[in-house]
């Protein structure tokens, strides 16, 4: 019967159905064929999947990203990043990564990064002569840094599920996030030399000072968001609201770049994006509920984990399991199912709960770049005009540096534990 579930979803995907329709439709077919519960349960479970207080942060972070884009905040961040790393070979590719690192401290969500900065980055790179596929690939890969560097909604959810310190989780994400950025920039440099991509401009200290001054108020957004959460003044949802309110304030009263017309467009765009994201979450929730109620994830995990008593082998099994599950399931649903299953076993093998949380979130973020539930790829497909299949192919090479960082973080706990142990003595 579980084969019916997966085959139904797969067939719908191959027929060109949106991922949410494929997951929800496959779940409905399974319920109708199995007769386990009434069909109406699908609607109840989908509504229950989005009836979550932490998910309130999603529309506000998306709104904040769109406001930053429309108000010129993301442009200032992009220009600031360009003044720092634009002189490197493949300059705008490095700028893409640098801007994502800064934006990571504002949105905390890969989708918000891809939606907020993506349109600016892809257009700038295409105008400068970069291949569209390269532009989309690096934009998708760099957007995964967002949930690793705080604020991070997935880490908040993991902290609640694992009863772990959210402050330590946030601190633990800084170094892995920076490693992701460095690895992507190395990949960009290699590709840029092979393809003879241009250098944006020579480094000028005067330009850096000017861009820093111009972007200073915009750069305060990460301070407000990350600082408010780490100090405990703001919850993630409140931080998302603060980011949106601050972006609105800058756009209306400081930069005066927002008009009623643009504000209406931002609102509509945010509603559309939120609806798409939450529809996927809702459909994934019913899909996840079926797997949970039939003990599929639990049985797969237990079977795989009985294959070895080696911590190294166990770590590899967990990474593979998370990557596979992340291909078919939305991040929050995957965490809700797998944290209670995998964490106790990981603790038995000597994992620190903070370290395991970073590894789990990082793995599931990489899964955002894999079909069929590659939400980031769907957003960038809409922005760039590339088909979903071409977005998948364009992003594939950039999975290599991200997987290398994942292995480093998984097998060298100090990379994620050094900073929280220093801060939270």
Q: Could you explain how this protein is built, in words?
A:
- The protein has 425 residues and is mostly helical.
- The chain folds into 2 domains: 1-39, no CATH class; 40-423, no CATH class.
- Helices cover 78% and strands 0% of the residues.
- Helix 4 (57-71) packs parallel to helix 7 (110-116) and helix 16 packs parallel to helix 18.
- The protein is globular, with a radius of gyration of 21 Å.
- The termini are far apart.
Secondary-structure blueprint of this entry?
Layout: H1 2-14, H2 19-34, H3 41-50, H4 57-71, H5 73-85, H6 91-107, H7 110-116, H8 118-127, H9 132-143, H10 153-162, H11 166-172, H12 174-195, H13 205-230, H14 236-254, H15 260-293, H16 296-305, H17 311-328, H18 331-348, H19 353-367, H20 375-384, H21 388-395, H22 399-411, H23 414-423
Helix pairs in contact: 1-2, 2-15, 3-15, 4-7, 4-14, 4-15, 5-6, 5-13, 6-9, 6-12, 6-13, 7-20, 8-9, 9-20, 9-21, 10-18, 10-19, 11-23, 12-22, 13-14, 15-18, 16-18, 17-18, 17-19, 18-19, 19-22, 20-21
Q: What is the percent of helical residues? A: over 70%
Structure annotation, total helices: 23
User: How many strands appear in the DSSP assignment?
Assistant: 0
Major sheet characteristics: none
Low-confidence stretches: none
**Rg calculated over all Cα atoms:** 21 Å
Q: Strand portion, in percent?
A: under 5%
Q: What is the ordering of alpha helices and beta strands?
A: HHHHHHHHHHHHHHHHHHHHHHH
Shape: globular
**First-last Cα distance:** 51 Å
């Amino acid at each position: 019967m579980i084969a019916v579930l997966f085959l139904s979803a797969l067939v719908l995907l191959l027929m060109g159905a949106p991922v949410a329709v494929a997951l929800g439709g496959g779940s409905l077919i399974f319920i109708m064929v199995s007769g386990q519960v009434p069909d109406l349960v699908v609607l109840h479970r989908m509504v229950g999947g989005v009836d979550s207080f932490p998910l309130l942060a999603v529309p506000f972070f998306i709104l904040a990203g769109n406001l930053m884009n429309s108000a010129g905040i993301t442009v200032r961040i992009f220009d600031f990043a360009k003044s720092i790393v634009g002189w490197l070979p493949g300059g705008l590719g490095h700028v893409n990564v640098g801007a994502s690192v800064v934006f990571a401290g504002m949105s905390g969500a890969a989708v918000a990064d891809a939606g907020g900065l993506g349109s600016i980055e892809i257009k700038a790179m295409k105008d400068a002569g970069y291949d569209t596929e390269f532009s989309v690939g690096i934009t998708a890969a760099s957007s995964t840094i967002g949930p690793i560097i705080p604020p991070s909604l997935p880490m908040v959810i993991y902290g609640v599920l694992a009863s772990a310190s959210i402050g330590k989780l946030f601190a633990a994400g800084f170094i892995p996030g920076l490693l992701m950025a460095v690895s992507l920039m190395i990949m960009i440099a290699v590709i840029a030399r092979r393809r003879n991509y241009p250098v944006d401009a020579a480094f000028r200290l005067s330009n850096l000072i000017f861009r820093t001054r111009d972007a200073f108020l915009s750069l305060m957004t990460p301070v407000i968001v990350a600082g408010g959460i780490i100090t405990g003044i703001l919850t993630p949802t409140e931080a998302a609201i603060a980011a949106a309110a601050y972006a609105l304030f800058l756009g209306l009263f400081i930069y005066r770049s927002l008009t009623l017309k643009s504000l209406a467009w931002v609102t509509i765009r945010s509603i559309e994006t939120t609806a798409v994201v939450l529809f996927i979450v809702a459909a994934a929730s019913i899909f996840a509920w079926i797997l949970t109620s039939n003990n599929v994830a639990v049985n797969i995990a237990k079977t795989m984990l009985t294959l070895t008593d080696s911590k190294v082998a166990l770590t590899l099994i967990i990474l593979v399991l998370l990557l596979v599950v992340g291909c078919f399931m939305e991040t929050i649903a995957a965490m809700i199912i797998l944290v209670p299953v995998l964490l106790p076993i990981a603790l038995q093998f000597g994992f620190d709960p903070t370290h395991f949380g970073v590894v789990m979130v990082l793995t599931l973020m990489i899964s955002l770049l894999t079909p069929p539930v590659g939400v980031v790829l769907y957003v960038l497909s809409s922005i760039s005009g590339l088909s979903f299949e071409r977005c998948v192919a364009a992003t594939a090479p950039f999975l290599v540096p991200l997987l290398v960082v994942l292995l480093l973080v998984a097998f060298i706990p100090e990379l994620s534990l050094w900073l929280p142990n220093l801060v939270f003595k």
